[in-house]
Specification:
Alkaline Phosphatase, subunit A; eight-stranded mixed β-sheet; five-stranded antiparallel β-sheet
């Protein structure tokens, strides 16, 4: 038996007025998911404990079968693992976004224009991170380049529990009430504005009509991760496929093989087909389990792009779900597929929500009576509610 998790980040949503009261899942043409729903176990699952924030870190750990209340130490340490940072026990890692703030106001009165600097390219970002290290690095602070706008800062012997706010939670808002109370973090973020104001990368981006990376925004702090080994816990030899450092870091920490897919970007322009091909190859070459993570629906939700969110769902269905399952069937392999988002990222709010999310579990050798179509509403009609990720994992793996 082969086990596939198709994790469409942020896919769940609320009804959208311009979609006639439908959600993007309802509006999307997704024949493979809908076909499976007819013969699958369908319900809703609570991926985010009430005591924790609805981040992709917590929710993906949950979707992978881990209890985040016992193994979560922060978001950024997981990304640090993917980047290759060897954290000591006293290091604190921070996610470092390259963001676009409004230009004219004093720092505390600026607005969060763009949490991603309009998806700045990694080569451009590396130049900026190099500059930040030149200007701000000291015995305590060091910056590391990740992918696009997602980077990492390490504070050696730094403090815990700073309560920092993710920038995607404050899109189009003044940063006044969200700036850090910790003086060192505040000073680093404020100094970055002057350092990056006339940076050559930003000058060129402005000439092209693109948002500049006008500041850093630090958040998601945490200590060295402590995730149990996946194979020891579940008895499966697995692989993780994702474009983003967060999921790669979870995979690395859990002992999963991590596949870097050519053309994987973490946005709507990612190479969906290559992700599907990589997953199928891993399964046919001996892996028991593959965790396929696609960031695009989440990014579209954060940007309030309903049509692109629909498109991303359709491409996941067409280029990943269909080819992977058909490829296994052609090879005579039995499989079980779990399709779900980690959390909702509603178009109307542009940020994460903690609502229970829809899921379906289809077993190729044991179809059951399911529902017509796969979406938020159809999942609720079954009355099946799973209280957390580990419980869903047991249902998925038949344990």
């Amino acid at each position: 038996m082969k086990y596939i998790v198709m994790l469409a980040d942020g896919m769940a949503d609320y009804p959208v007025e311009k979609l006639g009261g439908k959600t993007p899942m309802m509006a999307a043409y997704k024949p493979n998911m809908d076909k499976f729903a007819l013969k699958a176990t369908v319900g809703t699952v609570k991926t985010v404990p009430d005591s924790m924030k609805p981040g992709s870190d917590v929710a993906n750990l949950s979707a992978m079968g881990y209890d985040p209340t016992t193994c979560y130490t922060g978001r950024s340490p997981l990304e640090a693992m993917s980047i290759g940072i060897d954290m000591s026990d006293t290091d604190i890692a921070f996610r470092c976004n390259l963001v676009t703030l409004s230009e004219d106001e004093p720092y505390d009165e600026k607005t969060m224009v763009d949490y991603s600097s309009q998806e700045i390219t990694t080569p451009e970002a590396k130049e900026i991170i190099d500059t930040l290290n030149k200007e701000l690095k000291d015995d305590e602070i060091e910056f590391y380049c990740g992918i696009s706008y997602r980077h990492c800062m390490i504070w050696h012997n730094g403090p815990k529990g700073l309560g920092l706010t993710p920038p995607h939670d404050i899109s189009d808002r003044k940063i006044t009430q969200y700036v850090p109370k910790n003086k060192k973090i505040y000073d680093l973020m404020k100094k970055s504005v002057e350092i990056l104001k006339n940076h050559p990368v930003n000058i060129e981006r402005k000439k092209k009509g693109l948002n500049p990376a006008s500041a850093i925004w630090l958040w998601g702090e945490g200590t060295r991760p402590a995730i149990p080994n996946f194979k020891q816990k579940f008895g499966l030899n697995g692989t993780a496929i994702s474009a983003v450092d967060l999921i790669k870091g979870i995979g690395i920490t859990a002992g999963l093989d991590v596949i870097n897919v050519e053309g994987a970007t973490g946005n709507i322009n990612t190479n969906f087909a290559n992700k599907g091909k990589a997953a199928l190859s891993a399964l046919l070459e001996g892996k028991d389990y593959v965790y396929i993570h696609v960031e695009a629906p989440d990014e579209c939700g954060h940007r309030g792009e309903a049509e692109n969110k629909i498109k991303s769902i359709e491409l996941i269905d067409r280029d990943i779900v269909g080819p992977v399952t058909k490829g296994l069937e052609n090879a005579g392999e039995d499989y079980t597929i779990l399709i779900m988002p980690d959390h909702p990222t509603p178009i109307v709010t542009k940020t994460h929500a903690r609502d229970a999310v829809p899921f379906l579990i289809y077993r190729s050798n044991k179809p059951v009576e399911g529902v017509k179509g796969f979406d938020e509403n159809s999942a609720k009609t079954t009355g099946l509610y799973v209280e957390n990720g580990p419980a869903l994992s047991k249902l998925f793996l038949g344990k």
